[in-house]
Automatic annotation (TrEMBL):
Record's catalysed reaction(s): L-citrulline + L-aspartate + ATP = 2-(N(omega)-L-arginino)succinate + AMP + diphosphate + H(+)
Binding residues annotated for ATP, in chain numbering: 12-20, 39, 121
Broad enzyme group: ligase
Domain Arginosuccinate synthase C-terminal span(s) in chain numbering: 179-396
Source domain of life: Bacteria
Keywords annotated in UniProt: Amino-acid biosynthesis, Arginine biosynthesis, ATP-binding, Cytoplasm, Ligase, Nucleotide-binding
EC numbers: 6.3.4.5
Protein name, entry field: Argininosuccinate synthase
Family matches, as Pfam families: Arginosuc_syn_C, Arginosuc_synth
Positions contributing to L-aspartate binding: 123, 127-128
Every Arginosuccinate synthase-like N-terminal domain range: 8-169
Name of the coding gene: argG
Amino acid sequence: MKIDKIKKIVLAYSGGLDTSAIIPWLKENYNAEVIAYVANIGQSQESLNNIEDKAINSGASSCYVIDLRKKFIEEYIYPMLHTGAIYEGNYLLGTAIARPIIAKFQIKLALKLHASAVCHGSTGKGNDQVRFENAYISLAPNLDIIAPWRQWKLQSRQDLLKYLKLKNIHTSVTLKKIYSRDENIWHTSTEGGDLENPWNVAQENCWITTKNLINTPDNPEFLTLVINKGHIISINHKIVNSLDCLNKLNKIGATHGIGRVDIVENRLIGIKSRGCYETPGGTIMKVAIQAIEQLVLDKECVKWKTQIGLEMSYIIYDGKWFTPLRHSLLDAIKCLVDLINGTVIIKLYKGNVIVVQKKSPNSLYSQELATFNEDKSYSHKDAEGFIKILSITSRMRATCNDNNDISNLKN
């Protein structure tokens, strides 16, 4: 990277402490124009208030705020949901799935403005540096990438606050901030502070979206959700678009304490980290879609989808969204998603999402076949031939002299 050739930089800007310090640092060290780019993916309105003014006051020449909420849901969240991707069995990938869309539109803006470089505020310890830079390289390999946390001498929150004070740049952030948070319409993540010790119980100030179970309603709430090709299109008989749907389910789910997860996960670079995640609406959506899948997908399809979901969880977590493998996995799941049509009634109560009724025009479930009562469509005698064929290999192995399982019975 030749610093003297970098004249214009597009920074992924959040308005927080890190990126507020990055703007003057870039100007000081690169003598370049800095353009702030903000992706609106459903973070709190408070964090977006006056964000353009914050960026300009920190030294940016301009600030672009791009509303990506619907694209985020329809082109990233739903495809992820359809594969069933869940990282290490618990994490609904709220931060990870947001990075490719943020990076894509940052690159689009950089190319439009003829920028020389793009910049992010991710640290050298986390996953996001890989996710952002993998996306940058995949989409615009000729752009230079600047990662201040791997270059500057600032090492702590105290250092950043001192630096901003030296540059006479106002910030509302103080040393009293306990946690590191990431927020979008899909989830809120909380890390750092007392959570760094996994023996410490997550205090109530850790959770900012969902209610404590003690404060949730004592009566359950029922939702009727209509699903068309894997998309929720109606809540309680009212048609909703993707954005309104997730907003409404977030609000309802949070009221009932839905979607809290406290886990220790394996970061991409090998460090274990603890995260407290809140995904109220997403948890409801996941359960509803799975309920219809149970009716319409046969055993082999469920097995195949499980394999796709596992692979996709690593694709998303490891920042490999813009790869042929990701495209391949989504192509593989599409024919199954087209079958996911039906209606689900869900009961929400004290942190639980419980499916109580479900139906689908594509259902493979047959009450006549499944019943324990007398039926005329199935002959129990047919199972004898099926078991004989299925157990041919087991019978052959049982006759072998070196069958360890039989030897153990004799000892």
